[in-house]
Write a structure and sequence with these properties.
Layout (H helix, E strand, L loop, with lengths): L6 H6 L4 E2 L6 E2 L3 E2 L5 E2 L1 H6 L1 H4 L4 E3 L6 E3 L1
Antiparallel strand pairs: 1-2, 3-4, 5-6
Length: 67
C-alpha cells in the first residue's frame, strides 16, 4: 500500500487534471471523453455558455454530458 496518498489518488493511479481554461493542475476537473477538462470554478463562470441545467455541452467535440 502506498503511504501518503488518499484512496482516490491510489484508485486513479495519482492522475491529476489540468483545466483547459485556467491551466491549473487540480485533483478533480469536470471532463469529457474527448480530453476536455474544466475546473468547477471555471465551469461556474462559464455555465451560461456550457450548460442548460442538468447537462452541459463540450466546447471541443459538442457532446452532451451530464453534470
Amino acid at each position: 500500500m502506498e503511504k501518503g496518498k488518499s484512496y482516490a489518488q491510489r484508485r486513479r493511479g495519482g492522475k491529476s487534471f489540468v483545466c483547459h481554461c485556467c491551466r491549473r493542475e487540480l485533483p478533480f476537473c469536470i471532463n469529457c471523453p474527448c480530453g476536455f477538462q474544466i475546473c468547477e470554478a471555471c465551469f461556474g463562470e462559464n455555465r451560461w455558455g456550457l450548460s442548460n441545467g442538468p447537462t452541459w455541452v463540450c466546447p471541443d467535440c459538442g457532446r452532451i454530458r451530464m453534470t
